Amino acid sequence: MKTVLVVEDDPHLRRVFRTLLENEGFSVIEAADGVEGLAAVRAHAPACIVTDTMMPRLDGIGMLVRLAEAGGTRPTIIVSAVHKLPPMEELQTLGVRQVFGKPFAFDQLLAAVVKLAGE
What is the CB neighbour count within 10 angstroms for residue 25? Predict the structure, then answer.
């Protein structure tokens, strides 16, 4: 069973992600911010990450930068309401494969996770 790390500060949205992904057979690890996300990557080595960008303590981009500095990038999907993100070329160096704006279509997100978890 592939593990997906969901890093999202909204507990309701984390539950929605968990339900959606578990129904597709994924094991889901949750983190409320980038600090918890870093610890979860170290502890669980997820197949891919789904992360928000704006979170307390450490945002999603900051988490991905720290992972990249430690040589631990993972295929990542950003799900964010932020309209101004770094250029995709820069995000790709951090492991980002796709960006979804909020609101988003759950079926498209699920299809992207299925694809990335298989990389």
Answer: 10
Enclosing domain of residue 64 = 3-117
Q: What percent of the chain has pLDDT over 70?
A: 99
Q: Is 57 helix (H, G, I), strand (E, B) or coil?
A: coil
What's the length of the chain?
119
Chain centroid to CA 57: 16
| Contact residues for 37 (Cβ-Cβ < 8 A; gap 6+) | 5, 7, 31, 49, 51, 58, 60, 63
Q: CATH number of the domain at 42, please.
A: 3.40.50.2300
The share of the chain scoring above pLDDT 90, in percent, equals 82
pLDDT at 9 over 90: yes
23-44: average pLDDT: 96
Number of structural domains, the chain?
1
